Hints:
Blueprint lengths: L3 E3 L2 E5 L3 H17 L20 E7 L5 E10 L14 E2 L10 E9 L6 H18 L3 E9 L7 H10 L9 E2 L4 E2 L1 H4 L6 H7 L2 H8 L3 E2 L3 E4 L4 E9 L5 H11 L1
Helix pairs in contact: 2-7, 3-5
Amino acid sequence: MATIDKARFTARVAVSEKDIRGSQVLRHLTFVEETGAPVREGGLEQDKFDEQCQHVLIEENATGKLVGCFRMHPLKDGNDIDQSYSAQFYELSALRKFKGPMIELGRFCIHPDINDPDVLRVAWGALTRFVDDNGVEMLFGCSSFKGTAAGAYYDAFALLRERHLAPKRWLPKIKAPTVFRFAEKLRLKPDARRALLGMPPLLRSYLAMGGWVSDHAVVDRDMNTLHVFTGLEIQAIPPARKRLLRAVAG
């Protein structure tokens, strides 16, 4: 994947252990220190999947500061779905039938001191270029809400139930020991504004492009989050949105 350089920020693939270590430090800050999850050894948030992934760094041009990162785990098709990080938490046998190349997008984070939508735009530009260059047909991953108290996000979950559940042919089944079955339990009419404010930015981006979610959220106490499986079929992205993404990627 070539470098994406837009205004204040640049996205590039990690090329060294130092690069990957920097992303693990930022992940520890955002996923552990900021959420109250159990502290990791050495101040690094890392796991066995890091070795299988390409890591993308987003840096501030003026300072060189690492302001965001994510990792991509390419799969040749749905037959490899059980090798994914997500498969630890969701029963994904339905997705084994998916025929095209896939990417699991994970550990997406933005430095808590940075509040600039261009970071997310540059990230999606980098991802768009990789998708186009490699003929990827589906993105998927876990979209995380801070904390494990579902009540804080009832409007968000109700909106997901009402508008964004996965097609039955791809619907993940329950595997994790502790889940919140929001599609089954919630019947309230969501306040759309409050719902969107309660959703993580990455999930909002997925949904705006036609993405969908599992019918339950996993309670992940190790990361101190609730997360939903999220999928996005590339062919479902509206043409106007594709043009915008490719403009950033180009």
